[in-house]
Structure formats: C-alpha cells, structure tokens
Design a protein that fits this description.
8-stranded parallel barrel, alpha/beta, two-stranded antiparallel ribbon, TIM Barrel, 18% strand, binds zinc ion, 9 helices
C-alpha cells in the first residue's frame, strides 16, 4: 500500500485558548507546532491565520505571510493554505494569500450549513479560486463536505479550471454535512476518479475512527485541533500527540508513513 500522508490542521477557525490551551494561535506558536508535528510524522500542514488580540479568524495577508515564511524556513512540510470562508467570505479576501504560492491550498467546492451559519461558496467564487490556483501552480485540496461537491470538483476539471489528478479531503461528521460513517467513506472513495488521492478529516469524536479506516482503506489522514481538541474523552490533545498516535496506528497496521518529499510524489506536486 502507498505510504501514509499525515496532514495536520493545528488551528482552524474555531478553537480558542479558553477551549484548549494547546491550540497554536500566533504565527510563532503555529511555526513551533509545525516543527513538532513534522518530527512526529506529519508531511502536510493546513494553515489558518488568527488575529492575535482576540483569537478571531484573520484574513490579514501579513499574518499568513509570517506563518508561511516561518514554516517554510523551519520545516520541509508541504504548506497548504486554507481559502476557507469563516474569516470572510469575499473572493478578494480569500484569494490574496495565494500569491505566497504555497504548494497546496484548500478549495471547498460547494456550500453547506455550519451549525450557526451558511458556509457559502458560489460557483463563481469556486471557479475564480480554482483559476488562481492553476495560474500560480498551487494544487487544490478539494474539501468535500457532501457528495455533490465531488461533481462540482469534476466539472472544474471538465471546464479546464483544474488539472488532474485530483486530491480530495472528505470532511465527515460536521453537523449539517455528511455523517462520519464507514458507508459514507466507502461511497465517497468509490465516487472519485480512480487516479485521485484522498484524505479524511473526522470532526470531534469521529476523527480517530475515520483516520483508522482511511489507514486500512489506503487513503490518507488529517488530524489536528481544527477538527478535534480531545485526545480521548475529557482529555485535551496536542497537535503533535494526535500526529504521533496516527503514525503509531499506521505502524501497527503495517503502513509506512510518508515524509514530505514522498508525499509530494504521491500527490504529484
Ligand atoms: Zn481549515
């Protein structure tokens, strides 16, 4: 089986220091987390920025730049910048950070309801972001919250906005989106083109079981406090411990863990 790519999503838009002291918020904290997670077995880091004053999601270019430069200097990790919209939904604030030319960026190919808001990704916005990524030679990670979003990703290919092979991230277990079940995971895997690579992010208590199934099914995994702040029931996690646990599971199941350069090869970067 292909070596396992572990993506760490250390920060996201939601967890605050009040929820867990272990969530990295400042650029410096995120850079240190990146180093620890690389040592633990991660090969990709999915990056969000925060405003240091109130920990709210940030769209500030300078904050993304500081994180990007620091992670690039201190690690060999593949940097995947989020173009997610919790911090601001307009195209202009979501595409600006792409001029940093990270190797990857996330691209959500549809809209869903988050628990208290609409996560809006219009066809025009998706196309515009995809075209920017293509122009800047950034590989999109298709963020799939519902099965129909796969069709939208495929139509981007059909219309020449994205070059195959595709890389997908199945985000399962978020209230308002597709539930984290084995049946859903198998269905998603069987729906994408066979030459694609895929990873799975389970939300909250779904993280560990979804990661485990992906290891066994030949997929890849995403862990981190963006999706889940607990190591076990009632026990808070650190990002590096979550990465370490997945690397340990892979070993138990006889799957080797990819280093960043091997991950680059697997995802055709
Ligand atoms: Zn994210």
């Amino acid at each position: 089986m292909e070596k396992l790519i572990i993506t760490v999503a250390p920060t996201g838009s939601v967890p605050t220091k009040k929820m867990t002291p272990h969530v990295p918020i400042t650029p410096d904290e995120i850079i240190h987390t990146a180093m620890a997670c690389e040592a633990a077995g991660a090969s990709v880091i999915h990056i969000h920025a925060r405003n240091t004053e109130d920990q709210s999601p940030s769209t500030e270019f300078s904050v993304f730049e500081e994180i990007y430069n620091g992670v690039k200097e201190k690690t060999n990790l593949i940097i995947q910048i989020s173009t997610g919209g919790r911090a601001g939904t307009a195209y202009e604030v979501r595409n600006e950070r792409l001029i940093l030319k990270p190797e990857m960026a996330s691209l959500t190919t549809g809209s869903i309801n988050f628990p208290n808001s609409v996560y809006e990704n219009s066809p025009q916005l998706i196309k515009a972001l995809a075209r920017d990524m293509q122009r800047l030679n950034i590989k999109p990670e298709m963020e799939i919250f519902d099965t129909g979003m796969i069709n939208n990703a495929l139509s981007l290919v059909a219309n020449g906005f994205v070059d195959p092979p595709l890389h997908f991230d199945f985000v399962l277990g978020l209230k308002g989106a597709l539930p984290a079940t084995i049946a859903n995971l198998v269905h998603l895997k069987n729906t994408i083109p066979p030459d694609s690579t895929w990873t799975v992010a389970g939300i909250g208590p779904a993280q560990l079981p979804m990661n485990t199934h992906a290891i066994l099914m030949g997929g890849h995994v995403r862990v981190g406090l963006e999706d889940n702040i607990y190591f076990s029931k009632g026990e808070l996690a650190t990002n590096e411990r979550l990465v370490e646990r997945v690397a340990g599971l892979a070993k138990i199941f006889g799957r080797e863990v990819a280093n960043p350069d091997e991950a680059r090869e697997i995802m055709h970067l």
